[in-house]
Write a structure and sequence with these properties.
The longest helix has 36 residues. Helix 5 runs antiparallel to helix 6, helix 5 packs across helix 8 and helix 9 packs across helix 10. With 278 residues, the chain is mainly α. The protein folds into two domains: 44 residues, no CATH class; 211 residues, Orthogonal Bundle (MetI-like fold). The chain starts with a helix and ends with a helix.
């Protein structure tokens, strides 16, 4: 009898009941979401659908590899990286000032206790601006700028800049406020300005985390720039969209391989930078 009691899951693991309750709650929440999303993966394995899928994938082989086409893929891959890099750079120009304006740790008015009303309202307005910027997907921004600026990389750069400025500004603010702020507070109490408090207080202790997140966002921007190409925002994605519309699977296969290689290179570069900062 005692052996059976000791083998009870509740006795072996004191948190067993809590885990079961949380898993049950997650299942209850997930089930209606799957129904609302009409998630039916078994449709992929229906005989007719499977035949179409295999025929579509069969068109990918062998990949196209003539010199002229590979030169075009290389050129568009480089343009994709350029779109992502320029977009992130512009996003930084927008995000950094907004971060400085929205970070409570840099507020001079709150040193004596509660933050004054006017600075609080201004800070909340900046945070709402960041919410608006990151709430609109870069694909929507790209569609807008394609209408305004026409087809090409300009729309992709501006779309990435606006959406990513909201993302960077939000996360930068959270990183700065969750880190060590005693040095910054001491500087501000002794008459330093906000910029001095940032450069000599917050930045030195949070630079590795800020840089790591920025590099991660640059990786995401490379992937986003390929997707934006499908709405005419330039780069490798635009060429891939043209090839798919022409049902040229061999060209699509080559560009997919090039894009996988491109993301791998970006991952290697970011990993090397993180090791250098670490």
């Amino acid at each position: 009898m005692s052996g059976l009691a000791l083998s009870s899951p509740a006795l072996r693991d004191p948190a067993w009941t809590g885990r079961v309750l949380w898993l049950g709650a997650a299942a209850v929440l997930l089930a209606p979401m799957l129904v609302a999303a009409e998630f039916k993966p078994w449709v992929l394995f229906a005989p007719d659908n499977l035949k179409v899928t295999l025929r579509f994938l069969g068109d990918f082989l062998p990949p196209k590899a003539d010199a002229e086409f590979l030169a075009m893929v290389l050129r568009e891959a480089w343009r994709t990286v350029a779109i992502a890099t320029a977009g992130v750079f512009l996003a930084l120009l927008i995000a950094v000032p907004l971060t400085l304006a929205s970070t409570a740790a840099l507020s001079v008015s709150s040193l004596s206790g509660r933050m004054h009303a006017l600075p609080f309202v201004a800070r909340q307005a900046v945070r709402w601006l960041l919410i608006v910027l990151r709430s609109v997907p870069e694909l929507v921004w790209a569609l807008v700028f394609v209408r305004v600026a026409g087809l090409g990389p300009t729309a992709g750069v501006l779309a990435i800049a606006l959406t990513y400025s909201g993302m960077l500004g939000k996360v930068y603010g959270e990183i700065l406020e969750s880190g060590e702020t005693h040095a910054t507070t001491a500087l501000l109490r002794n008459g330093s300005g906000r910029l001095q408090g940032f450069f000599y207080g917050l930045l030195p202790t949070n630079a590795p985390e800020l840089t790591s997140y920025t590099v991660y966002r640059w990786e995401c921007a490379i992937r986003s720039s390929a997707v934006l190409g499908f709405v005419g925002a330039g780069g490798l994605g635009q060429q891939m969209d043209m090839s798919m519309k022409m049902f040229n699977g061999a060209e699509v296969s080559t560009m997919l391989l090039a894009f996988i290689f491109l993301v791998w290179l970006a991952d290697m570069a970011s990993a090397a930078l993180r090791r250098a900062l670490g």
